[in-house]
Amino acid sequence: MSTVTLAREGLTRLSPGAWLRRLARNYVLRRFLVALAKIYVVVTLTFFIVRLMPTNPIEAYINELIDQYGFTYQEARDQAAALFGLDLDTPLWQQYLQYMGQLIRGDLGTSYRSKGTPVSAMIAKFLPWTLFSVGVSLLISFTLGILLGMVMAYRRESLLDHVLSALASILTAIPNYLVGMMILVFLGVQWKVFPITQMRGAMSPGMKPGFTWEFIKDIFYHATLPIMTYVLTTVGSWMLAMKSSTISTLGEDYVMVAKARGLPERRIVTAYVGRNASLPLFTQLAISIGFVVGGSALIEFIFVYQGIGQLLLNSINYRDYPVMQGVFLVITVAVILANFLADFVYSWLDPRIRIQ
Amino acid sequence: MTEQRLDGHLNEEYILQVEDLWVSYQAERGTVKAVCGVSFNLRAGETLAFIGESGCGKTTLGLTFIRLLPATARVERGRIWYSRGTEAVDVLAMHEQELRHFRWRECAMIFQGAQNAFNPVLRIWDQVLDTARAHGETDKKKIRQRMEELFQLVQLEPRRVLRAYPHQLSGGMRQRVLIALGLLLNPSLVILDEPTTALDILTQRSVIDVLRGLKERLQFSLILISHDLSLAAELADRVATMYAGKIVELASVWDIYYRPHHPYTVGLIRAVPTLSGDRGRLISIPGSPPDLINPPTGCPFHPRCPYTTERCQEEEPPLQAVSPTHHVACWHWEKVIAEGGERMLTKAEA
Amino acid sequence: METVSLSLKRTWRLLTYNKMGFLGLLGVLFFILMSFVGPYVVPLDTQTKVDKIYQPPSMEFWLGTDSEGRDIFSQIVHGGKDVLMVAFLAGFISTAIAVILGSLSALAGGWVDNAIMALADIVLTIPQFPLLAVLAGLVKFNNITLLAVILGVLSWPSLTRAIRAQVLSLREREFVEAARALDLGTRHIILREIMPNMMSYIAINLIFAMTSAIYAQVGLVFLGLVPFSGQNWGVMLSLAWTRGAIFYKDSIWYIMSPVAAIALFQLALVSLSRLLEEIFNPRLRTSV
Fold this sequence. Notes:
The complex is a heterotrimer of chains A (356), B (350) and C (288).
Chain A: H1 3-13, H2 16-25, H3 27-52, H4 57-69, H5 73-84, H6 92-104, H7 119-154, H8 159-173, H9 176-190, H10 196-199, H11 213-250, H12 253-260, H13 265-303, H14 308-317, H15 321-349, H16 351-354
Helix pairs in contact in A: 3-15, 4-5, 7-8, 7-11, 7-13, 7-14, 7-15, 8-11, 9-11, 9-13, 11-13, 12-13, 13-14, 13-15, 14-15
Chain B: E1 14-26, E2 31-43, E3 47-51, H1 58-65, E4 73-84, E5 87-90, H2 96-105, E6 107-110, H3 124-134, H4 140-153, H5 158-163, H6 171-182, E7 189-193, H7 201-217, E8 221-226, H8 229-235, E9 238-243, E10 246-252, H9 253-258, H10 263-270, H11 310-314, E11 320-323, E12 326-328, H12 333-339, H13 342-349
Parallel strand pairs in B: 3-8, 3-9, 6-7, 7-8
Antiparallel strand pairs in B: 1-2, 1-4, 4-5, 9-10, 10-12, 11-12
Chain C: H1 2-17, H2 19-36, H3 38-41, H4 72-108, H5 110-125, H6 128-138, H7 144-154, H8 157-171, H9 174-181, H10 186-194, H11 199-222, H12 233-242, H13 252-280
Helix pairs in contact in C: 2-4, 2-13, 4-5, 4-7, 4-8, 4-11, 4-12, 4-13, 5-8, 7-11, 9-10, 11-12, 11-13, 12-13
């Protein structure tokens, strides 16, 4: 049954119950609901874990105010409540509802260190740089990995394959922050290929954001080293995965039939082998996104790049709990949404998922 | 040697002339001799069926004709002359570009297990278009029209099927789509490799009917590769029995079924139940298929043959003409025909 | 005797089939030996020597000296134990959790299965490093056991899924069916029938859990989020970094020694896992 006929039949004949069932079978919708459910669970878990911790950050803050600034307990408590946007006198479940209500409005509380600054504003300032550097890196490394993986599969057992395989294994094994450090030490300091002090930060001082060539050049310049590190440390696993996937795809009947049909080699390589072999990689994309975004704190620290990881690190060092919690939530939500995006692209590329 | 030798000159009667073809595979244990000195001619418009147990080299033979052998395989020697109008070209000597043109436009091979013959991520129509474009046809309207005609012939609903993705079609439908796609460019030669395996009985029946209908309507030569003798009986003009990479008997379909000269052919025919049921007992051929890495000396069938004599173990029988239309490679064909192959039956029962 | 030497020969051939994997095995053994036996052989150099700051490698100081003129090599030898201990412990804990939850999920089915799989999905979704960093901000990880436990508790989901899938397929096989028919109990079925069939998965995932534990552990120590003291490659890295060892030509040995030690150990582990994969999964070998 093609979807069009199905849909047409659906319009005329199906009862509401059947409609719901059809909707439930829609892959993208299902994945979207799963993503929403995950976000809900993570948000809820964060709320309760933070409050049930042995060193509850709110308590810790209250104690700190009392010890260091000589607040009375009540003053400290009011101050803490105001800061976290909580009414501490209400029962936990009401606090929870209040917290959820604020989150939905995009209110993540205010920073404790830079007093009065909304956490959401801070995140809005730092997050784009991480999304930019990580996004560009994943795009480059995924594409490069697919291309090199296919080359390795087509030339398997050749010298090129052996060299690339060994290189890929080595690059995947070494933690990304060590690779970053080696880049910094060798390319930056010892051999002076990159002027590292100039490249610090997410953009040059005084640069005006906008869709100008100057600006785009500048942000790429500043992101070069983080991107290089991310690409080097992720490309290997894409190469190896694509190589084995391509080798098994090359054995599929439809590739043989495509050759028998006299299709040009270029068309077979792209639409028949490449597209099918890359499908399994999209399921791994989800895990990779989480890992790279998660590790951004380390890379951004090494290269002094003002991304969300750097913000997270600062907030932890200053015990700025509202920022910590907000950044953690945003990173997790970003990863969940990125996973959903990967699912979406996957279903778009594979009709067997889309149309059942 | 089959019929008349070519001696290098073109015989216009034939669409395909295969001369002394040898193909082998490199395996871990040694060299697998899959095709050993096969020669035959195929007339324009004729259907020739290759039958035999699995592993007798018939699929390798089919793949050799369109040069799609796996990387471990090698054509040791031989020629495959394909007639293109007034000239004959050696398929084995074709360049990449010429070969691409030859495939599907001139010779379409329809594979066994068409379940996975289609790219799962492209709609049937896109794959049709791919095929047409690869051979320089760009008029979408014309392609669509032609495809709709062909789908009608193979009893498929064109609009629905063209729009579908492969996984939305049943196995039988996919098989018929592949057959229709095979005829898209009006090839003069079609190779069908086990077109009905993996299909249920009813679907098999409809595919057979479709093939018969197509053969009556469209002019193409057909090489049918099958272990299914009833399929060969329904479609073929001539039948070649293959054993251990060799043609051991080649005759008209009537001769093969009613006057088989080779004990192996007798066994194959008797291994199939007939619907009328009265013509004798059902047997299976004793012994196992030959080892193609170390084939038996002499006649390759001798270890399983009830007519074996010392000569069979030492000397290999050539494929010789016993009548203008009947060739057999057996030292004792006269005995076989005299007894009606009775010994095959008794040996199987013993 | 004959058979023993034969099987030894076979084992040797299997081990040496994958050159890189064999090197990995040797590497892992080397690091274990160095970290656990080495400290008894090489005394830790704690003496500040103002005249010997940032010396290049020599016969006296194999890897040169640090910012206070102390021998780097001795620090590397002494700094491995913590890292390896955390890795082994975390790997062991996550494997144990995964084996228990995975088999339970598959054998119990129903809501237990759904709950475990949902939990695995959630844990897998949360980016590990930020979670660890935030936890480090809330709780003081001042001993390595606590860190190992937390790392282990966070890295079970992927192995759990693999084990669940394996058990589901093994459950249908005859020997498990027989054990069920004999009513030998879930524990017996898991330990005696299913586990031996899954050693390959477990070994490979143990290594994987170890590598991710090392990644997180050294990362946390390097960022100063985990206040470890004493000898530890992560601490060395952190100290070298804060003392600006990256900026001078002479100090390169100070920062690169722990980098190389960690990177080589990770590389050895990953190569070893490839070797194990090939040994356990003969289809990956072209020939032996």
